[in-house]
Write a structure and sequence with these properties.
The protein is 73% helix and 0% strand. The protein is mainly α. The protein has one domain. Keywords: Chloroplast, Membrane, Plastid, Transit peptide, Transmembrane, Transmembrane helix.
Length: 243
């Protein structure tokens, strides 16, 4: 490998010493460290676990957020038409909400490399059972996505209502047309959509299509793999827009 354990982060070195991760992961870590941006991201546990498991993780984030920005902006244009230039502030609020949701839809179901510390010898049988399970075996992504969706919608609809009230104060014509968006009901409805529809689609996308089908098939062809990820994620976003 050309480097000792002392040159690795403590959690990674401990995992290597305990034989819990293969040499391929260490080689991937060394490759990722060559990029200043990736080296900085590797300092954060969540990013480290995902980048070591999937070196295209950031590519998938960029694809998802890029496609999301385009489709959301197109939907806003379709809905507002002639009013679009005058309501760019509302469009911005809606797009911000979409970006937050899209990022979390990649983050939560993404595969991870476990760097958890070794289990204490005195641990009981229940603790040993849970320790032996994969990191994502008991993740409640549905409930997490409900919270994320509701929170993102609260931010988006909250900003929208603030903008509406500001405009009402200065534009009497706008005041007679505009209505406040129901924040709570809209946010809860979006949270439910994220927890049910988005959760199921993205678990299948990340856990089955990408991780178990495309990755083994195109493991050494990163450009082709990125193109296929772009295609299936674009299709998934389009499917979600129809629901």
């Amino acid at each position: 490998m050309g480097r000792g354990l002392e040159s690795l982060p403590q959690d990674l070195a401990a995992a290597v010493e305990a034989g819990r991760i293969p040499g391929e992961i260490v080689r991937r870590f060394a490759e990722l460290e060559k990029s200043p941006v990736l080296r900085w991201l590797l300092r954060f546990g969540g990013f480290k676990e995902r980048l070591l498991a999937d070196d295209l993780f950031l590519t998938k984030v960029a694809i998802e957020c890029g496609v999301g920005i385009f489709t959301k902006t197109a939907a806003e244009w379709e809905r507002r038409r002639d009013k679009f230039p005058k309501e760019l502030d509302f469009v911005f609020a809606d797009v911000v909400m979409a970006i937050i949701a899209d990022f979390m839809l990649v983050w939560l179901p993404a595969p991870t490399v476990s760097l958890k510390p070794p289990l204490a010898l005195s641990a009981g049988p229940i603790a040993k059972f849970f320790y032996s399970c994969p990191d994502n075996a008991f993740q409640r992504n549905g409930s997490k996505l409900f919270v994320v969706g509701t929170g993102a919608s609260l931010i988006g609809t909250g900003i929208t209502n603030v903008l509406i009230n500001i405009r009402k104060a200065f534009d009497k014509d706008f005041a007679s047309e505009a209505e406040d968006v129901p924040v709570l009901s809209t946010s809860v409805a979006y949270g439910v959509y994220m927890a049910v529809s988005s959760n199921l689609r993205y678990q299948i996308l990340a856990g089955i299509i990408e991780q178990r089908m495309l990755e083994p098939l195109l493991h050494n062809r990163k450009l082709a793999l990125s193109a296929m990820c772009f295609a299936v994620r674009t299709g998934n976003t389009f499917l979600g827009s129809l629901m």
